């Protein structure tokens, strides 16, 4: 069993990922708990709206539980596993959403929790989450009788550290760009073996359509043709960061483009290819033209002309008014049951948010509460 998770933001992005059926054969919503909204997108937006009253920039904790194809969990086992993970992460009782995906006969479930503690209006800590994932996974394997997966943080038992698995963001990037970690690792490892210094590595990489860039958090990163970001140290097999710095000593990171600049260059290279195909560029979720071009146009024009009332209808209404007749009321369009449910759910969400906004103390009072809690922590320490 493999458990992953991280704090994140973006309700719309999460909703799109959890409901994808192009990369999954099946996506089933299993539970929505702790929100007024009873639909997935509405529940995520509600969690995000509540977090707006805090200083947290990552209001969600997105976790996943993956088992082998022959070790499917029953509904009871799955909810039991989720509760155990929730307890370990300190998220007990928090609003959550559970979605099960099936791909090529293998199931895995996603859980999204709200990290916002409504009593204190602060985000619940996500520290040491990787260790907690493995502790829960090892305990569940023993309890369910599943085959043990070698972890990195706990129960090593003298075994070598397993190779790093792709993170959730890396898997999303691979789906978006079509370039996975293994493909990037093979390319850069071969270039590393065939070159002697940083300049040769940079030139060979650019011949393949990639760009060597200055990382925001790392020394060097590579930008693939679709705009994906790859850490050089993680994509060259058997090489450490110190080895890369030593070989790239002839390169000045300040002379390299930044990540944003390199991605803009790749976007410019990609757009003519997409135009030749007769379709706008949709890769990496980008618009088909740079943002600067859109700004130069000015405000967007309306989609179509505004409809004017029919002259015949206006004349009829004036004639009826002169004769003292009352206009015949037009029947209102019927509202579907689904539309009524959406309106009722929206009303409930708005009422909850109004209540929450009344319960949130003013900025000065929140600051006083924070300072008071800090003073208590220092006194206890």
CATH topology of the domain at 2-144: BirA Bifunctional Protein, domain 2
Q: Judging from the principal axes of the Cα atoms, what is the shape? A: globular
Largest sheet, order of strands side by side?
1-3-5-4-2
Radius of gyration: 27 Å
Task: Report helical residue fraction.
Answer: 40-55%
Secondary-structure class: alpha+beta
Distance between the termini: 39 Å
Number of strands: 10
Question: What is the class of the domain at 2-144 in the CATH system?
Answer: Alpha Beta
- Which ranges are low-confidence, i.e. pLDDT below 50, for 5 or more consecutive residues? 280-323, 360-364
Name the helix and strand elements from N-terminus to C-terminus, one letter apiece. EHEHEHEEEEHHHHEEEHHHHHHH
Q: Give the overall pLDDT as a whole number.
A: 77
Figure out the total of helices. 14
What does this molecule look like?
The chain is an alpha+beta fold. Among the domains are: 2-144, 2-Layer Sandwich (BirA Bifunctional Protein, domain 2), CATH 3.30.930; 168-262, no CATH class. The protein contains 14 helices and 10 strands. It has helices at 11-18, 40-51, 75-88, 129-144, 168-177, 181-194, 198-207, 232-235, 241-247, 259-276, 291-297, 311-322, 337-359, 363-380; strands at residues 2-8, 26-33, 60-66, 96-103, 106-114, 116-117, 122-123, 211-214, 220-223, 229-231. A 5-stranded antiparallel β-sheet has the order 1-3-5-4-2. A 3-stranded antiparallel β-sheet has the order 8-9-10. A two-stranded antiparallel sheet has the order 6-7. The relative contact order is 0.09.
């Amino acid at each position: 069993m493999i458990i992953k998770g991280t704090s994140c933001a973006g309700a719309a992005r999460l909703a799109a990922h959890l409901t994808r059926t192009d990369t999954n054969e099946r996506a089933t919503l299993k539970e929505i708990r702790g929100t007024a909204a009873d639909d997935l997108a509405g529940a995520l937006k509600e969690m995000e709206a509540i977090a707006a009253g805090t200083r947290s920039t990552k209001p969600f904790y997105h976790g996943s539980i993956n088992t082998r194809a022959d070790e499917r969990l029953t509904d009871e086992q799955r909810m039991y596993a989720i509760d155990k993970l929730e307890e370990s992460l300190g998220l007990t009782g928090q609003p959550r959403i559970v979605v099960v995906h099936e791909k090529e006969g293998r199931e895995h479930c996603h859980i999204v929790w709200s990290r916002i503690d409504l009593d204190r209006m602060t985000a619940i800590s996500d520290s040491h989450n990787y260790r907690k994932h493995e502790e829960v996974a090892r305990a569940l394997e023993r309890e369910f009788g599943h085959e043990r997966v070698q972890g990195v943080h706990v129960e090593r038992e003298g075994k070598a550290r397993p190779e790093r698995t792709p993170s959730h963001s890396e898997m999303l990037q691979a789906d978006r760009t079509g370039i996975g970690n293994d493909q990037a690792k093979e390319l850069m490892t071969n270039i590393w073996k065939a070159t002697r210094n940083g300049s040769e590595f940079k030139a060979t990489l650019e011949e393949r359509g990639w760009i060597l860039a200055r990382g925001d958090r790392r020394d060097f990163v590579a930008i693939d043709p679709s705009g994906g970001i790859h850490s050089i140290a993680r994509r060259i097999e058997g090489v450490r960061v110190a080895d890369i710095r030593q070989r790239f000593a002839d390169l000045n990171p300040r002379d390299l483009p930044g990540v944003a600049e390199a991605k803009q260059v790749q976007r410019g290279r990609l757009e003519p290819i997409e135009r030749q195909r007769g379709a706008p560029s949709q890769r990496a979720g980008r618009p088909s033209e740079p943002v600067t071009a859109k700004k130069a146009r000015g405000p967007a024009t309306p989609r179509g002309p505004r409809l004017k009332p029919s002259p015949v209808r206006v004349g009829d209404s004036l004639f009826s008014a002169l004769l003292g007749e009352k206009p015949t009321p037009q029947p209102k369009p019927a509202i579907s049951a689904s539309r009524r449910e959406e309106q009722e759910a929206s009303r409930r969400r708005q009422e909850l948010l109004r209540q929450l906004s009344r319960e949130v103390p003013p900025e000065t009072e929140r600051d006083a509460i924070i300072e008071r809690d800090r003073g208590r922590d220092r006194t206890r320490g």
